[in-house]
Each structure stands twice: as C-alpha cells, then as structure tokens.
UniProtKB/TrEMBL annotation:
Classification via SMART domains: WD40
Alphabetical UniProt keywords: WD repeat
Membrane-spanning residues: none
Name of the protein described by the UniProt record: Uncharacterized protein
The organism of origin for this protein: Spirodela intermedia
WD repeat spans: 314-355
Alphabetized Gene3D superfamilies for the sequence: YVTN repeat-like/Quinoprotein amine dehydrogenase (2.130.10.10)
One Pfam family linked to the record: WD40
Length: 445
C-alpha cells in the first residue's frame, strides 16, 4: 500500500477516497426523509436512526435488511442503487485501470442463490481505519464472530445476540508472557490496521508495524513486537495457518516490503522475505509449499514458502492488489485488485488467468473460498459481496446487495455462516447469511 510520504492521518478513512457515506448522501439531497404529507421531516436524523435489527422472517415480509425506510425517503431503492453505482469513486493508483480491465471480464450469469439472509444486528458497529485494508471481520465458527469496533476487538454471538469486548487498544497493551523478542513494555494507542483470528489465536497488526498476539482461551496478551522501525511500517495483512510440519504459524505482510513468518508456540521469526514494493496481502497454499504475494505492483508473485524464491510472476492486473485466497484443492487461487477485477489462476498454467471476474463499483478488497471449495466469494469496498459457484467454472453468481462500506467479511470454517461488517455512521451493522441446503427427499412429499 503506497504512502508516498504523506502523513498517516491522510490515508486513514478519507471520505474523498472512500466515497460518501449514506449519511452524507442523505445530507446532499440524494436521500431525505418525508413526512406523511410529503414534506421534509423536521428531525431527519431521529427518523433515520429509528431502525431496529432485521430478522429473516421480517425480511421475507418485505422489511429492508438494513432497516432503511425507503417509503419515507425521496428515492426508491432501485433509483438510489443506480445513483450510487454511478457516483461511487473507486480508488486507483493507476489511472483508468478499471476501464482498461473491464474489457477483459467474462460475462457471468446472475441469479445464483447459495446463501440466505439470516439476521442484521445494529448493536454491532464495525469500524475501519484504513480505506484500502478491509480484513477486520473473522468468524471462528458458525455462531462466533470477532471484529474491530471503536478501537477494540469485540466478539458477537449469533445465538445469544450478545456483544463483548475481547481486547481494547484504546489504552496500554502489554504481554503477560515472556518470549524472546517480545516487547515487554507493550504499546500505547495502537491503531489496528488488520486482524486475523483462527483456532483461538488472535493476531492484530498496527500502523507502526506492531504485532499483538492473544490466545482467546487464555487471559492476557501472549506477545507484542514491532516488526520494523521504518517510517513506512503499516501492517497490511495477517494469515494464520498450519505449516507442512504441522506447526501453527502466521504471516505478516508489511508496507516495508517485508513478508515475515512467525511460529505460534514461541513467537520466533522463522522467515523474513523482502520484496521491492509494499506487500499488501499473502496467502499460503493448502499444502504449505507456495505463497501468493501481491502488493503495490501490477504483477503478483508466486513464491516458494521455504526460501522465498519466485516460482512464477502473475501478469494481467492493471493496478495494485490487496487480496488473495487459495482454493482447497491447491490448484487454483484468486487475486483481487483495484482495477475492479478478481483473477483466478491455475498453478498448472500461469501464463494468464483462467477467469477474470468484475466488481460493480470498486476494487476487490477481500476474497474467501468455502472449505469444500464449492464457492468463491469476493467483496468490493462497499455495497456488494459476490458469491461464485466454482463447480460451474465461475459462470454463475449470487450478488449480496446492501449499502455501506465493508469492514470485512468472513466464512465460518464449515462454510455454514457468512458475516459481513458494514461501516456507516447511521447504518453500521453486522449482516449474517446462512448457507442454503436443498433437501431433495422433500420433493417426493
């Protein structure tokens, strides 16, 4: 992620780069509340915030999943969607990259129905600190989600509908365990840029190259470290995984061009690979042998996980990439780019992507595969999460459509639950979708 020497505050949540929030668009006259006679309501904000959670039963009866009262606004949902797509400003590091890539995208049939809406909780308030980094929501099971909210990691239970704070970064954080290289004095006022949660391990990365590790089933913090003292130090992504020897590890992608691998048992640095540009995201193959590396370069890399040597270059994207993910079969993987495309690659022939998939309004900021490999999901910076059926060669998709910036999205390990964090000053919430199952024996009744 390119900083170009500017102050960090300038690339934290800049509305010009993010696009207008719904609240601002309402203030701009795109949406405003009406009274019973059609006149503008005196206390518009009070009306707009009188919104409750939405259940699947309510949605089936016609309630908007976000609780937006379209009948009280001067625009229909369809009209506002068209306006939103036309006015949303996609951030590009390479001018007109989206227009150039658009010509390469394949036609995909809409109408897939793979995940059904379950619930929208407005008690949960996802937040974002950086307009390009959107990996701040993680589901550890079908009912348990961890996400960033107001400078704290919080836990949400979809069973009890209870929200609890797990780790606050608003004050001082310091490790309670002693490990070589751990910064025992800890940190104060850490700004969390990225997050990963898996197998009871939480790893947070910060704007100053901080790493904070906590086991969810233990009290206190296990490890704190500052990976680099360089000015351009932001931690862009973290991936937790099991290496070929069976040890638990995590990788940190950093703006100083570094890719660092740590073991979880002693938090020791196992590998440090360096690249000539900021590393925005990495993902490791299911067998642990290959790593996809993308960053502030139009080309991506496939490297050997043991020594960091380049196995192949990935040529095709027209802008900088911020996401990647592997199919469970270990043969295909996907990369997401600011040129508004997701490209799917086959390790057996990397001369070009086997599929080029298009977003509606912005960069592809996050990608996930279901554990059975049947679905690939990609999230834009706002409003859309797309679900592709891999068994139909990415030719059919479901489009999840809402309004607001996406702080992150996550699939549970069993693929049963999909959670989407929505950031907005009024309509911030956590969307929950469940996998649809077809019980064929019912057809005989």
């Amino acid at each position: 992620m390119s900083v170009n020497g500017v102050d960090e505050v300038e690339y934290m949540m800049d509305d010009e780069e993010m696009g207008n929030t719904l609240e601002e668009e309402m203030d701009d006259g795109l949406l405003y509340a009406r009274g019973a006679t059609g006149n503008e309501v005196e206390n518009e904000n009070e009306l707009l915030t009188m919104v409750t959670d939405t259940s699947s039963a309510q949605a089936r009866k016609g309630k908007d999943i976000q609780g937006i009262q379209w009948d009280r606004l001067n625009s229909t949902r369809q009209d506002y969607r068209r306006t939103r797509i036309g006015s949303y400003k996609n951030y590009e590091n390479v001018a007109s990259s989206g227009d150039l890539a658009d010509k390469e995208c394949q036609q995909v049939e809409q109408g897939g129905s793979y995940y059904d809406f379950q619930y929208n909780s407005r008690m949960v308030k996802p937040t974002i600190l950086h307009f390009q980094l959107r990996n701040l929501v993680w589901a550890t099971s079908k009912h348990n989600v961890y996400l960033m909210s107001n400078n704290a990691v919080v836990h949400w239970s979809s069973l009890s509908h209870e929200l609890s704070e797990v780790l606050s970064f608003s004050g001082h954080v310091a490790p309670s365990e002693k490990h070589q290289g751990s910064l025992m004095e800890g940190f104060t006022g850490t700004q969390v840029s990225t997050l990963a949660v898996k197998d009871n391990l939480l790893v947070a990365g910060g704007f100053q190259g901080e790493l904070v590790c906590k086991h969810l089933n233990q009290r206190g913090i296990s490890f704190c470290a500052r990976m680099t003292l360089e000015d351009n130090a932001i931690t862009n992504a973290i991936e937790i995984y099991t290496n070929p020897s069976g040890s638990n590890c995590f990788m940190a992608s950093n703006n100083d061009g570094g890719l660092r691998e740590y073991d979880v048992e002693k938090y020791q640095l196992l590998n440090h690979f360096r690249f000539p540009w900021p590393v925005n995201h990495t993902s490791i193959s299911p067998d642990g042998k290959l790593v996809t590396v993308v960053g502030d370069h139009c080309e991506g890399l496939l490297i050997d996980s043991r020594d960091g040597k380049v196995v192949s270059r990935l040529v095709g994207h027209r802008d900088f990439s911020f996401s990647s993910a592997w199919h469970p079969d270990g043969l295909t993987f996907a990369t997401g780019n600011q040129d508004k495309t997701c490209r799917v690659w086959d390790v057996r022939n990397l001369s070009s992507a086997i599929s080029v998939l298009k977003g509606n309004l912005g960069a592809i900021r996050s990608i996930r595969y279901s554990s059975d490999g049947q679905f690939m999901m990609m999230a834009e910076p706002a409003d859309f999460v797309h679900i592709y059926n891999t068994k139909q060669n990415y030719q059919r998709r479901q489009e999840i459509d809402f309004f607001g910036e996406i702080s992150g999205f996550s699939l549970s390990a069993d693929g049963e639950s999909l959670y989407i964090g929505v950031w907005d000053r009024i309509y911030a919430s956590l969307l929950h979708y469940g996998r649809r199952h077809i019980f064929k024996y019912l057809d005989a009744l």
